[in-house]
Amino acid sequence: MKNIIKQLRKNKGLRQEDMAVSLNVSRQTIISLETGKYNPSILLAHQIALLFNKNIEEIFIFENFGGK
């Protein structure tokens, strides 16, 4: 699943460490999210959306897996 977390974080002037502290996760989790190596739980996705004042669908791009 692709996302625009890095872009949003930079636009808000946050460091990865700042974002990690705000979300109560590790900096490594933020790195993994930004590079697409980790998909967040629905709870974490919701917290990220709240942090950036966006809807989950605006941040995370769900790729089509062959279905409609």
UniProtKB/TrEMBL annotation:
<dbReference type="InterPro" id="IPR010982">
    <property type="entry name" value="Lambda_DNA-bd_dom_sf"/>
</dbReference>
<feature type="domain" description="HTH cro/C1-type">
    <location>
        <begin position="5"/>
        <end position="59"/>
    </location>
</feature>
<dbReference type="GO" id="GO:0003677">
    <property type="term" value="F:DNA binding"/>
</dbReference>
<keyword id="KW-0238">DNA-binding</keyword>
<dbReference type="InterPro" id="IPR001387">
    <property type="entry name" value="Cro/C1-type_HTH"/>
</dbReference>
<protein>
    <recommendedName>
        <fullName>HTH cro/C1-type domain-containing protein</fullName>
    </recommendedName>
</protein>
<dbReference type="Pfam" id="PF01381">
    <property type="entry name" value="HTH_3"/>
</dbReference>
